Amino acid sequence: MSKKVAVLFGTETGNSEGVADEFAKAAKSKGFEVELASISDKSLDDLKSMETSVFVISTWGDGDPPGDAETICNNLFTSEADELKLDKMRFHVLALGDKSYVDYCGCGRRLDGHLERLGATRFLDRKDLDTDFDDHVASWKDEVLKVI
Predict the structure, then answer these.
(1) pLDDT by residue (tens digit) across 65-118?
(2) 72 neighbors 40 (Cβ within 8 angstroms)
């Protein structure tokens, strides 16, 4: 895989941004060229040129995208995105959520599925983390870095 990694986050309260920042720093320390950005700063066309991508996204409420990811997620989740070809992208999704909601990590699950449907290749299965995510971030980070 490429030594260039895009780390994109979607957050409502800052948790996903914090995890993405922590991952980006660890990836840089391993020699990766890292682009850290809010998913809201990217267009669907931007996604087409990305190769290795790590998405850290929270779910707001019962399965909804967080506010800063609402536009791009809603665009990805519609049939209008079917023309988008993401066959250059290798990706992984870390979904943060709250198990007390019926649609636990719903946004992350949908993002993961739609990226694959559009031709992207998953390099590691999606990871869903509950509100105690801090207890699991270090092992998740190590696993992703080992694979990429």
Answers:
(1) 898 888 888 888 887 777 889 999 999 999 999 888 888 899 999 999 999 999
(2) yes
Answer for the pair 98, 65: CB distance below 8 angstroms, yes or no. Answer: no
Specify the amino acid at residue 15: N
Domains and their CATH numbers in the chain: 4-147 (3.40.50.360)
CA 76 to chain centre: 13
Per the listing, tokens 């998740």 go with 140
Type of residue numbered 62:
D
| H/E segment holding residue 108 | helix 106-117
Instruction: List pLDDT tens digits, range 5-44.
Output: 999 999 988 999 999 999 999 999 999 999 999 999 998 8
DSSP-assigned letter for residue 64: B
Bridge partners (DSSP) of residue 10 are 57
